[in-house]
Amino acid sequence: MALELLDPAREGIALGAEQLELLLALGQPLLELGERAVKLRFLRVERLQLLLQARPALLGGQEAGKQDVEGEAGEQHARRNEKPRDRCANAIHHGGDSSRISGASPAGRGVSSASERDFVELRRFFERAIRASFADLAHRGDPAVPYLADLLTRFARTENLFPRGSTVPRLETVADMLVEIQALWDDQAPSFRPEREVSVRRHIGDFTLFMTGIFRERVERSASTSYYIVEGKRAYRFVSEHARARDDGDATYRRLAERFESYASVLDYTRRVHFFDHPAHGFFRLRFE
Fold it and tell me: Which of 20, 63, 176, 221 is deepest in the core (most CB within 10 A)?
């Protein structure tokens, strides 16, 4: 009789254990859902932080850029007068030698139909990403968007980022590019081609803007950020002054010189926020950090 009275108690204990297991089983998916919600919240906070960091640089960069560029203009004018370059002024052009420094058209010559399609798809992706970044930063319609999209598309190919030089096989650093310019003005050397200086200067501006924007962490680790900004602004200012001397109404390079840091911040924001849904291209397999 005592044993029979104990049986219901045992059954109650068993039922309680089953309920606990069921509650634990149901609780696990809820915990996972909660963790995902927290991660999503963190991602939103991180994106907001990026917006807050990049927006002041974009909106306030123009005034700071003007002051810096004005301070550099006198020094650059003196450097341009170090050698008698007037005789070659009319021969200098923006495109340059496409076999060495890439010109305005990133597509190149003689590319296959597949390469052209890849190029067009990549160019569209970059332009959409950059426009979206400017929209995020409440600065729609910036006229530099097409140039920045072309810049990223060109430099997605290593041979455009590190073009062939006359002094070294590849121009891989700003120092290499400055040495290249000196060699262009050596009238005793086979590399004497002063008409290419504008192309090399423009490449310095593009290279430093690309690196400080897309590979910002690497540039910061090498303590080269200030150097890249100074050389990039100086290079774009040189190209802008040359365009003005030729009565070229395009103010793109002046704008790039004045807002160099702002555009670098936009490229950094674009890479962090809008590079996720990208086309299949080797460029996006690089380690940007």
Answer: 176
